Amino acid sequence: MRRSLVAGNWKMHGSGAKITGLLQALVQALGDEQEGAEVVVCPPAPYLPLCQLLLQGSAIALGAQNVHAQASGAFTGDVSAAMLAEFGVRYVIAGHSERRRYAGDTDAEVAQKCEAAILAGIAPIVCVGESLEERESGQAETVVARQLSAVLEHCDSESLGQLVVAYEPVWAIGTGRTATPEQAQAMHAFIRHVVQERSAWLAESVRILYGGSVTAENAAQLFAQQDIDGGLVGGASLKPEEFISICKSVGR
Ligand code: 13P
Q: 233, 242, 246, 247: which to mutate for ligand 1, most atoms within 8 A of CB?
């Protein structure tokens, strides 16, 4: 049985004061949650220690937005998986489309980042998803399969047990244009099929999140789909009431 997961990706938003207020509200509403979905927040890296402190003793897990593939070295401005682990980070987003686009993260690098995270005991949330142009030209499945296979082929079977996949169609991110539950379900089923070719056991256990303009209004319908195991939420995760409502609209 897969436990649902809802992760808030705060991207490059917030301040110490705003994050404190947001987390206090989340801890109060969701901090004891053992029954519902697993909840994760992914703040910008400098706020990880603050969030670790505020989340102490709560059921909400801490995630990071990015990690470097190497364990250490001359990589100015980057952060290693072991460093993240020191601050209680349990999840890390890898290959978000914004990083693929603005920071040039390639499929191979994303796969190496996933491996580095797993080695440090951090579960990677690997993001896959097609652009509008790719969808309209019938390339959506090919693109998603390529992005995902890079990770599945790079990591060994045992470590893949920690993997979480997030399907985030680029055209649905921050646009208010959500994939319909049917569109999302179709791609999630395809993703599970791609995983199954690697391992039948993994296909059953891997959690596949949907991301892209998830709101309190559309979350329940999306999460009700058979192969949608939760969400990766951007904008709506910065609004405490809305995020709480999204988390509560998914069952365990
Ligand atoms: P929005 O929910 O703002 O569309 O962002 C989705 C996303 O990119 C989460 O990683």
A: 233
